[in-house]
Design brief:
- By secondary structure, the protein is α/β, with parallel strands linked by helices.
- A hairpin with a 3-residue loop joins strand 6 and strand 7.
- The strands form 2 sheets. Strands 3-2-1-4-7-6-8 form a 7-stranded mixed sheet, with helices on both faces. The protein has a two-stranded antiparallel sheet with strand order 5-9.
- It has a single domain, classed as Spore Coat Polysaccharide Biosynthesis Protein SpsA, Chain A, CATH 3.90.550.
- It is 32% helix and 16% strand.
- The termini are far apart.
- It contains 10 helices and 9 strands.
Amino acid sequence: MQVVNNKGSDKVTIVFTADNRFSMPLAVALCSMIKNYQDNRKIVAFIIDGGITRNNKNKIIRSCQSDYLEINWVKPAKNLFPKGYIYKAHFSEAINYRIQISGLLPPDLAKVIYLDSDVVVLGNIAELWDIDIGEDYLLAQGRGILNSGVLLINLEKWREKNLSVALLDALRETIYDLKVPDQSLLNAVLFGKWGKLNYAWNTWPKNVNEKTKIVHFLTAKKPWGIDGDKVPNSYLFFKYLDMTAWSGWRLNFPRRLWQRAQFFSRQTNKAIKSVISSKQKRRPHASKRYHDQ
């Protein structure tokens, strides 16, 4: 790591959310971030832990050891979200932790970078940290609809306006209607209240170019998954994977069978819950309620 920048003694603060299924991708995200870091400020990373095993935590720590990185594990309270919520596709409860970030992180933090665990950081993350948020609640990439995979969050404003409460209220009122849980909530509640990040900070795999700073493997098809060979630029994931404690990991035949079994098990459980939930009374969509707050 070559240090080329010094903008003061403050720290670069970053938060991830992950469950045990995303332990390996999280290690890749952290490893790629620290390998491409060019600053003398320390990175303080908070990982909101949705059930990562002790063994995988140790592997994550070994994967990104650096004098410039401090890792803090945050265990959220149980029953943080409404009961009966059905997480669709490849999502789990961990995806919604970001809407409660202001209450899960230390109260003295004024802002934070949020990163999904399915990213590879190719640029200097300190450059994202130094972007001025202004009066926006957050900065994100998107054309009219924000993508929640990379966010620069104004924590002071979130707390001042009790945004986490509004987001949780919206979740309760739209419990059956969300296709992409956290992202749908943020778009509904923060309509017209967020600013745009340059596309380089949240680039789709098929659009990677020399200006890309963060690659976001945002669809259900992941480099490490069953259809990984169909994901453009997946080599970037494996490049940094081989620098982690998972070095050499590839989706061989036994792992492929295991992934399929786990996938069908999750889908079956979700289908059963969906049938039960469908018998309950639907509540109206509440997004418009928050636009004028």
